[in-house]
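Q: I'm teaching a short session on how sequence maps to structure, and I want students to see two examples side by side rather than one. Could you give me a first protein with its sequence written out and its structure tokens following it? Keep the formatting plain so it prints cleanly on a handout.
A: Of course. Example one:
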Amino acid sequence: MRPLLLLALFVGNLAAQPTPQRGSAELTETLDKLQYLGSVLMMAAHPDDENTAVISYLARGRHMRTAYLSANRGEGGQNLIGTEQGPLMGMIRTQELLAARRVDGGEQFFTRVIDFGYSKTPEEALKLWGRDVLLGDMVRVIRQFQPDVIIARFAPPPGSGGHGQHTAVGHTGPAAFEAAGDPNFRPELGEPWQAKRYLWNIFQFGRGGPRALRDEPLKEHQIRIEIGDYDPVLGKSYAEIAGESRSMHRSQAMGSSQSKGRVTADFQHVAGDEATQDLFDGVDTSWGRISGGETVGEHLAAARKDYDPRKPSKILPHLLAAWTALGKLDGHWPTVKRHELARAIELASGLWLDATASDWAFAPGETINVRWTALNRSDAKVEWAQGSLLGVGAVDGPALNKPLEYNRSVEETAAVQVPADAAYSQPPWMREKSNGFVYKLDDPALIGKPEAPPVLTAVFQMHFAGGIEIPISKPVLYRWVDRSFGERQRALQIVPPVAVSLTRDNLIFPTGESRPVAVQLEANMANANGSVSLKLPKGWRATPSSIPASLAKRGQKSVVEFTVTPPATTSGGTLRAVYRFSDQEISTGMLAIEYDHIPIQMVYPPAEMRIERTDVKMLSKSIGYVMGAGDKIPEALRELGAEVALLDSTDLSAGDLSRYDAIVAGVRALNTRPDLIAAKDRLLEYVEQGGTLIEQYNTFGRRGPPPSLSPYPVKHERMSRARTDRVTDEGARVTLPLPDHALLQAPNRITEKDFDGWVQERGLYFMGEWDERFDSLFESNDEGQEPTKGGMLYVRHGKGVYIFSGYSWFRQLPAGVPGAYRIFANMVSASKLTE
């Protein structure tokens, strides 16, 4: 393979995310960025912790290479736009970060640690993650990215970031800064790199979240910079761009205003050389910082000076001369700038280079047919010399040597066979099962990267005047026309020949009776004929033992159904569906995550689900559910035999509520459903007449505590920075101060054992104060704290019952936790117990 092809791929992996601008705006910005050799890395814990205003200012305003390192992918977050949790939530938030970077001009990195939910102390976070893992991954990214300046979002020791994960990253950052420059510290993580300085971007927690201390006098060792300047080329200030960027975090309800006018950011010196005026004090950001770079810089400066947006091809001689001079240089900055320069040449010459496949999904062993397109939309003399494909397969195309006439496209085709043993296109961090706190990556080169490389990359070898050859890389995509949205595109994927999926996440057997289990099949190739069977825990039976399935056509779907019989006694484990055809056994599904603000994401989960035989009785058969931020509790209630209706605004304002044995408000429903607040009087009347009303937790908004549906006074409050309004340890002991309470006696006898096997946290946003008429049924606390009593409140109101619960049923029920089913069954049955 030609060295330039390898270089093109390597540079592509280092490149910043594509900007939303095109044409003269992008070329202007690229030419400006080519003038500067400076870089800055921002570090924090989660998606949405970054300061998008600072990133936008540095990337788009100062033209510095700018990146954000998020320690984790936000897997423990609460999804406001769908029902995804855990790793799937992490996939969404990863793509939201990438969408944000496409807006503000930054790049994105991650470590391998996992967001396990709210943590009260940095010691807990570092113990569960492993300090060496977090430190090592931070050092790896620093050495790869080679920042001149590191900016921390959270304070160094002994400061606090509130959230234990915030503080853990803030405390580890200075150590990573020092270790990255130490040649004796883990040389396998890359060549040592010592950044010039490490600063803390100061903020304080306020009602609206982190905000800059814009008006307070500076203290010793602090500097303040203006970041709200207006960019006439982009037509926006950097603070406006920051608002757009932050608003990409839709799953976390981070929609932000687009500030105009003066905006400042304050920075506290932590380590390295102290800055007195500017973040880059003492840093040479010109081409003079590298030996032999002055000549490159002179050509690029001439290109910027002579640039005419109406005639961009005029600067091609300057850009091509810079390319020739740059080809004589090696090292970090020449590698980074070579990609930027190739993009500038592409834009200045009006090139449209594209490679598409006939479909997006390909099974191992299949052939990917690729169509290449090259189009010259300028008067530049350009020749398409050759094309190559790299990735899951490699093809060196024939010598083309085709001149590109003005506005006349040239097309070629190529084919790549997917190896029979090719791995499915699973996100790299999800290929191996994690321990819940750290991902396992089989390829160390992928540590830090936001996503997998493309399945195929097309490399166009372009010849320009003077015989200069420039490789330009493009991912091979699938394009189609949506009749509503127009032309769309998506990434190629290597998929299982037959996707095997179960139609639910778990299945509860509340009695010894058999239950149906459906297996869905989808053919990703023709003539995939075989049979389906189930693998079950010891003592469980499935009939029939195997079911034939004929899938003749690509895209054909089929559903087969088994009858599963549990053992007579309590038992549980994993059910796995297996499809056998030819000499293959497939137990992998195919799941699409689709939202308008991010590209379509594919994940290939194992065809497994949790099954539990546990005695659960529920007296309520008709339940109304008011969906809030999105959860799967309605499906769980249906598992227990209830009919569940999702209530809309009309149902709440004018529907017959008496038809429901219980009405449940979903998580954050009062944050997202104003119609629920408006219906409070009707709902309390429903309770008075004998209904059960359950209110799950809601969060603090910008205007303070959420309202409540309670018939009597209650008060949400955050009692301290220690967050005693929540219990974060899912294994924390839960005691029952009123063990003989009616709600704990029937229809299921509840004991402390029902809290065994919980996932993530016990609960969030407990009540701080409540009327004396309430019964507090559960008490729990994290280590070192007093018992928290406001997680489960019960009160009679008229003939019915109102219950508030901050416990995390929305996590436990989809996870199939038996005790959670038993407790929730009692909750929705509450009024039936008083009849």
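Q: Perfect. Now a second example for contrast.
A: Example two:
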Amino acid sequence: MRIAGIILIHVLVAVLLPASAADRDRDAGTVVNSDASVMDVIDFATNNLDINKIGQFVCNQGRFYPSTGEVGVTAEWPIGSGHEQMYRMNVFVGIPGNVVQSRNSSVREWNPLPGYHNGDSGFLAVSNDEETWPLDGNNQPFWPVRDAEGNPHILSQQDSYGVYDDGNNSLGDQDPSQYLNIEIHQSSYAWNTELDADYIIFQFDVVNNGEPKDSMYFTHYTDFDCGGWRGLVEYADDFVEFEPDRRFYYQYDADNDTDNWEGDPFLIGTVMLETPEINGEELGITDWHWTDSVDEPDGATQDKEFFWYMSSDPRLRDDADTWPNLFHGDDIHFDDPSTIPDRGTVIAVWMSSGPYAVDTGDTLRFICAMVAGADYDAISANVDRIWDVYASGYQVKTVPQPVVAADALGGRVLLQWDNRIDTGYIDPFTGTNTLQGYRIYKTEDPQRVEWTLNDSVAVGEYTDTGDPAVYTWTDMDVINGFYYSYAVTAYDSLGAESGIAALDDGTTTVEVRPSAHPNTGDIGQVNVVPNPFVISAQWERERLGNLPEGEPVRELAFVNLPARCTIKIFTLDGDLVKTIQHDDGAGTEYWDIRSDFNQMVATGVYFFHVDADGSDHVGKFAIVR
């Protein structure tokens, strides 16, 4: 549904890369806690946010990128594309001389806490998957965030929740009196409506379980890489712009080009939505710095420097011999983006708020959003939308998504879904059921980018009047052996539509491949199409997602098959190449022209032998280039 061009904010050519970038470690944290690998951390949990167009890794350790042995994507947009533009994102909390963080490449100081997810699953709790929820005394799942009446408190179509403390604080490990006893309750909120598919909101409730603290700072750290973090050229030519009035910064690529994927880099940024109040006024962003991530504090014992940078301490700026690249411009608290070299550079952003005086038991709340857009106009509109949603208390109107089943036998596609949305949908703004009907979208594009609205079905036009009633829709305009994707959305009278923003990510769609009914007559009708099979011809299908390592899908078809049979493929010399057991009840079987040893077969002429309950047939086909 989305066709977006890139509007260049600046057109710059990177002709020289900073020398320091060549030495930058891009291994996403292969070294973790100094005493044990992250996989050994008790109660550690991860998950992947996937409800909208942003794919994002989350865990309960104060970081938002996978380490060694973990699976996940970082700021992938659109989801499923392989276009990732984040290297690191972290949270820091500290007082003078003692900062807790997970940015450091050798130490993870945030310690995961139990009781907030299903420990047996290893997954961080997400609201749309009860198998990730913690279990109560009766071994039943429950959502860990509750309202005043004890009911589940879920704000979006996909909330996530995890809790961690500073139990791995390096200074506390040396001297227990140095543990800050700080605990963070981390939440995220995401929606997939057309207006809300390009951002995720993160909330951090910082709880002081320790002694009162006079000067606490919170820092949200991002290391975005426009064009991807693989390849020196791609992460070393970025720019950042800061809009203090909207508490928003965004990064973009200098030459608007990348070698990591087809298409252009997108814009990505962060909005600080909420910070605590002091004397009735919100403190907001107090310090904002961009830096080459090679030239920033990173050592396990550099807590003093960490805090000085978070709080813009003049002593750190004055130490130009040791830290020459940490401050940019005349304002010590807010860096000037215009000082970035014309070629761009490797950029990390430290966005801080403080100082705060906190008593024992106090909670400080910080809310920010990660946002993406194809160009400045798009990301700016998304920022406006984020502020509107935040101001409304996260009142986002969402229409439920129908659950669709598909059958593709007999030269047609049959879609089915039930009518539970008909009676269950209530518009949160009107308090009434405004559902109008369902729309059916279809595409033959393996990337699921170009879609066609094929038909619509009004509420009540179901075929089966059982309980629940079932809607059906049939597509006869298909060809056996070809791939088709379908999506069914629900829409209301005020224009809201479910899943329309996520058609291209595959999460709300079904993919089918129509096949003929099985042959119940003469087995001699079995043949191969196309014959000859020409490698790299037009029937090769690009793999979904266009993964760099993926080859095209090369398949020839055996047609007019019985419902169950054995197919054997031989060379002209009689060598067995492949054995295929066909037992899916259809009349077609596909072969990827690979041998039983998963090797691409050579060009030439081959025989096939089909055996079905004592009846057999021999045929011949060719593979050419």
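Q: What should students look for in example two?
A: Point them to this: The helical segments are 170-174, 232-235, 303-310, 314-318, 376-391, 420-424. Also worth mentioning: The chain has six helices and 33 strands.
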